[in-house]
Write a structure and sequence with these properties.
heterodimer, A: 192 residues, mainly alpha, 2 domains, B: 699 residues, alpha/beta, FAD/NAD(P)-binding domain, Alpha-Beta Plaits, five-stranded parallel beta sheet, 32 strands, globular
Chain lengths: 192, 699
């Protein structure tokens, strides 16, 4: 398994191999409705034609099948889906091609919402948000990058700009007000 | 009426009328139906009956397990006779289902059949409120109270009879139209068959073989075409179009435009000397552009009638004023470039619409690149390419280099089952014709590798599943469950690479094929849309003509005397089209055998004293029923052609003078219902809510 696969879809495959027989008690009959609640269309309209997998740019690089994730959702196999949600680039190509007018990308976004609410948050999300409240961007400023920017005659990144401090503060207030800090456990960073 | 609204808004129901009605209040019987558990499972029918008993004018109220059964009808007749009932209210299913049943029953007991009123407590109550039993019971009571109130104002009506012309018009000369015309002709009726193309035969004439038996399509169709053209009772009007249809069942006046062929049908013997002489070559539409024809042509060798037609757009004489080589070649002087369109006026009793379908044409920017890649073709094009009388003489070639393809792929559900395109229906024939075409290719070239990309295989008919299995097992055709995502073309070989997920394997595959066939779906024919407007026919959401009832009146339309057959009604295969054509023919024959038809009296009628002849009703009526005529009293007045009127009430509602009433839906009757709905009880608990009277003015 490649590094990318481990980061993004790790857990799913091991679980699938482990479970020889899926017990009915593992199925969540209201899962499709839950997805709808978080902005996905009705996954039950999917006819499993596989067009979405075929057009998915992610599927070129790693073993990731949009169609089968939608099938898991239809089936109510909640825990299988929760390890897969972050890999989607939300390019919406699947939506463009879907003959059933379903939007698999939005289903993936809904799955992220559900996963975060269930407390399943991969470490890279926490890192990204920590960077956001510290520097106002999800990628940590790097002296190497600054050097290259200078060589290319570009401005310094905003986070290095003293005037940008008030903007970062605003982001922190927003993150705190929406209780997002508590949800992913970065209260300390926002307190400043 | 116990409690008419205190502030009566409707001026038409004056106080005087009400006292009169009360004085001679008709005796009403209410019959509450359980419909097994359909109604009784939700609505407390006992409670509803008790409430109905207390209503003013109600003499008797009964409940039945099945009111429509013999026993139930017997009870109605008995009650009418024993209690001297004058108005009958049946609370059961939709009047669409059993109104005729109960009308007959009431008539048997000696009452006028139009003194029956049906209250729908099934479709409009128990079925839709199955989770709220108490409130459904309350609503059923409310509905019955409204019904009883209306029933007290019902007037007896008499049905009228009109004569029927024993002549039929069949529009469309495909297999359905041909069969319908033949059946009617054999029954002894005069039939006119109108076909817009130079030859009859329709889409079936273009096909190679038919599934599941593998009969050659034209071989089984051509004898029928010839039989039709020689039938003494059938007049074939090819290269003609229906321009105008006026009138009503039994009495249609139809205008048919006979397009100028520039060849006299009576003189042409079909020798083809003119076509040999003609210097102009164009693509033949019948072969979907693969073959060629001359500017004077018959579309295919078996054409009926075998009469040549000059294509005005391409003929040199019409373009330059010179040439006339065909005229010199014709030994019978049949060619006349000065011919004009003719209009034929026909008197018609019944009409059968069999206008067929159009094959779906892939979009210009579609993912399957039909317009870009030479070797992506549609299934109908393949039919011509494998057809023995087609442009290649039955040798399958690929368009880019005329070589025989070694690897062929079929892509299913193109232009079907696609919400994005707004085509949600299944075209029903594509699975089977793809399987059949795979078989034909395998029989021609046994070494060809064939793959079918499908979503679901629908082999539902007689012998279909067996053929599907034979193709898999005997012919080793590969079936891949997955909708192709991307097609790309090799610039050198012009072969097509298909990228798709093989969903049963869970793997993305990329494979190369020499030829890709798109199994395109069926769309309503363009001609159908035009004819639909001429005949005021309604369509279902899929765009095909709507039948009067999906199960019980499958070949009737909402217009009496007009029937539908074949793919005009929806996608179907040849056996189904023929069966439906035979059904339509026998349905159309029924009123023609009887020579008369009875017409419902539930129509609009005009009070000439009030009518000012504004003509608004003539514009709004969807059926063309009202017309403005010079009245005896002078001036233009609206007049309703009753045979055309469906009693929809559009004219009555729109009439600024209130000069039009719709029988059995008069303002007075509807006001009564509304008053009853608002007046007495509270539907929540069924208790009399004395102080809660609402005035109609408030509402």
């Amino acid at each position: 398994m490649s590094e990318v696969e481990k980061t993004f879809i790790g857990g799913l495959k091991e679980k699938l191999v482990e479970d020889k027989v899926i017990d009915e008690s593992e199925l969540d009959p209201n899962f499709a409705k839950e997805i709808q609640k978080y902005g996905g269309k009705d996954v039950m309209t999917c006819l499993q034609c596989g067009n979405c997998t075929g057009v998915c740019p992610i599927s070129l690089k790693i073993d990731y099948k949009t169609r089968s994730i939608v099938k898991f959702c239809q089936f109510g196999l909640k825990k299988y889906t929760l390890g897969t949600r972050w890999v989607c680039a939300t390019c919406y190509r699947c939506y463009e091609h879907c003959p059933a007018d379903l939007n698999p990308a939005e289903v993936m976004i809904a799955l992220r919402h559900i996963a975060v609410r269930e407390g399943i948050i991969p470490p890279f999300v926490k890192t990204a948000v920590t960077n956001l409240v510290k520097y106002g961007q999800s990628v940590k400023p790097d002296p190497e990058i600054e050097k290259i920017r200078k060589e290319l005659g570009l401005k310094r990144v905003h986070s290095e700009d003293p005037e940008f401090a008030s903007v970062i503060r605003e982001i922190q207030v927003l993150v705190h007000a929406s209780k997002y800090d508590k949800l992913i456990g970065i209260q300390e960073e926002v307190k400043l | 009426m116990t409690a008419p609204a205190p502030q009566d808004k409707g001026a038409t129901t004056s106080g005087q009328d009400k006292t009169k009605a009360a004085a001679s209040a008709p005796r009403i019987g209410v019959f509450v139906c359980h419909c097994g558990s359909n109604i009784a499972g939700v609505v407390d029918c006992g409670k509803v009956r008790e409430a109905a008993e207390k209503l003013p004018g109600v003499v008797v109220a009964k409940e039945n397990k099945y009111t429509c059964s013999d026993l139930g009808q017997e009870e109605i007749i008995k009650a009418i006779k024993e209690h001297g009932i004058e108005r009958v209210v049946v609370a059961s299913c939709s009047p669409r289902l059993h109104e005729p049943t109960f009308r007959k029953c009431v008539q048997q007991a000696g009452l006028n059949p139009y003194l029956l009123h049906m209250v729908n407590i099934r479709e409009q109550c128990s079925w839709v409120h199955s989770h709220e039993k108490d409130r459904a019971t309350g609503k059923a009571s409310d509905l019955i109270r409204m019904g009883v109130s209306k029933a007290s104002r019902l007037e007896p009506l008499e049905a009228r009879e009109v004569p029927v012309e024993p002549t039929s018009l069949v529009i469309g000369g495909g297999v359905a139209g041909i069969q319908a015309a033949l059946d009617l002709g054999n029954m002894g009726f005069k039939v006119y068959l109108v076909e817009s193309q130079p030859s009859i035969g329709g889409k079936m004439a273009q096909l190679d073989k038919t599934f599941p038996t593998g009969d050659c399509a034209i071989c089984i169709l051509a004898p029928k075409m010839v039989e039709l053209s020689r039938h003494p009772n059938i007049t074939l009007l090819s290269y003609s179009e229906v321009e105008e249809v006026k009138g009503y069942i039994g009495n249609y006046d139809v205008k048919v435009r006979r397009k100028a062929r520039y060849v006299h049908e009576g003189k042409c013997i079909g020798c083809g000397a003119c076509a040999d002489a003609c210097p102009v070559k164009v693509k033949n539409e019948f072969d979907l552009g693969f073959g060629q024809r001359k500017a004077v042509y018959v579309p295919f060798p078996q054409a009926v009638p075998l009469k040549y037609t000059i294509d005005k757009e391409n003929c040199l004489y019409f373009k330059t004023g010179k040439c006339l080589l065909c005229v010199k070649a014709c030994s019978n002087q049949a060619i006349d470039h000065k011919m004009q369109d003719e209009i034929l006026n026909l008197k018609i009793g019944t009409i059968i619409v069999a206008t067929g379908y159009d094959s779906y044409v892939p979009k210009k920017n579609g993912v399957y690149r039909y317009w870009e890649f030479d070797n992506v073709i549609t299934a109908l094009e393949l039919e011509r390419l494998v057809n023995a009388s087609g442009p290649t003489g039955g040798h399958l070639i690929r368009p880019s280099d005329q070589k025989t393809p070694k690897r062929v792929a079929f892509i299913q559900c193109v232009g079907s089952r696609n919400k994005k395109l707004g085509i949600e229906y299944c075209s029903r024939v594509c699975c089977m014709y793809a399987i059949k075409n795979a078989q034909i290719i395998k029989e021609h070239e046994p070494d060809t590798h064939i793959a079918v990309y499908y979503n679901d295989i629908r082999a539902f008919g007689k012998g279909f599943e067996e053929l599907y299995h034979r193709i898999r097992e005997e012919y080793k055709v590969e079936f891949i469950r997955g909708r192709p995502a991307k097609l790309s073309q090799d610039p050198q070989t012009k072969s097509i690479k298909i990228r798709a997920e093989e969903t049963l394997l869970g793997k993305i595959t990329e494979r190369v094929f020499d030829l890709v066939v798109l199994s395109t779906g069926l769309r309503p024919a363009e001609g159908s849309i035009k004819i639909g407007k001429v005949l005021s026919l309604t369509t279902s959401p899929d765009g095909f003509f709507a039948e009067a009832h999906p199960k019980l009146r499958p070949v009737d339309t909402a217009m009496d005397g007009i029937f539908i057959a074949g793919c005009a009604q929806g996608p179907k295969d040849i056996p189904d089209s023929v069966a439906q054509a035979k059904a339509a023919a026998s349905s159309a024959a029924a009123p023609m055998f009887a020579r008369k038809v009875s017409i419902e009296p539930l129509t609009a009628s005009v009070n000439e004293d009030l009518c000012v002849g504004c003509g608004l009703c003539t514009e709004l009526c969807p059926y063309g029923s009202p017309e403005l005529v010079v009245s005896e009293k002078g001036g233009m007045k609206a007049h309703i052609i009753e045979a055309l009127c469906h009693g929809c009430g559009t004219c009555a509602a729109s009439c600024p003078q209130k000069a039009i009433i719709t029988r059995q839906f008069t303002d007075e009757q509807i006001s009564c219902e509304i008053e009853a709905a608002l007046s007495t009880t509270d539907s929540q608990n069924g208790k009399h809510a004395g102080g809660k009277k609402k005035s109609t003015a408030e509402v």
